[in-house]
Amino acid sequence: MGAKTLEGLHMTMESGSYIDAMHAVLSHAGWTVYPKPILSGMTVNGFRFVVNRSLSCESATAYNWMAENFLAADFIGVTTGQAAGFSFEPTFPLYQRQAVSHLKASIDRGRGAVFGKDRFVVAAGYDDEAGVLLYTDGCSPAWRQLPYGEFGHNQSPYWYYQMFEDKVELDPIEIYKESLMQAVYKWETHDIMLPREEYACGMEGYDAIRHALEHGSFDPLQAAGVFRSYTAAKLEVSKYMDMLQSLWPQLGGAAEAYRTVAVSFQKALAIMTEQGEVKEKTHLREQIHWFEQAHQAEQEGIDHLKRFMRERIGNRFDHVGQR
Where would a tag sit more exposed on the chain, N or C end, judged by fewer CB atoms within 10 A? Predict the structure, then answer.
């Protein structure tokens, strides 16, 4: 029987994405000194844009967690161990015990771990006598408790966890350049894990938003949550591009475009109430206008990135996202 807590490990909620959790763990462990917006860009997480065509709340986390969270860490030189599955499987109790054991082992090594609890949260401690994991979710300054036997029992039957195992020093310049390559890939490519009839990815996400708003085919409260998540993500990318512009003045046009994207999302979100309702019916057209402006600006930003990275893009032929 044992207990351990990682003092000072607290997650802050901004975009509600994996980066909120990843940044909390890596900064606490001393593995990154980058602020969250820079980490969001370096890992490519901030460039992902997936929209459920009914604007349902899972849009921002609708992707292959095992593959893409592994890549996010790999892009910055962090090796990981992770596992996932479904709680309805007959072998789930075995995986549940193994998951708890792995999370505790990571904490014993002085590093938090990411796991799914209806969204990404961070394991920051455990208490064997009480039989609970302590975790931080960014919604409360206090750690929350999760009984060992409740791990993996979420609103969705899907369970997931990830541990950060080691760090390899990489050239930051190469990380930045690769992130721009991946940004182009995310913009132009549909995620093969997601059915097109239900989800739109990259540039097509804006068309899905417009269609849903024009036809009223969405739940306002869930749509507001999606817009809040992406407003935070677009702001992170804008700050990332501002940083890259300081290194490469040629990216000034891209940085300006992404600033416009971030401002447009902020203005579109401001039109909605906390419950997701448009404050005035006449404002719906204005909201659509801001998303169209964001769409145009982001396309301009991508065009700038493609010109800046044209040689490397050319070397990859039709496989821009393949390293």
Answer: N
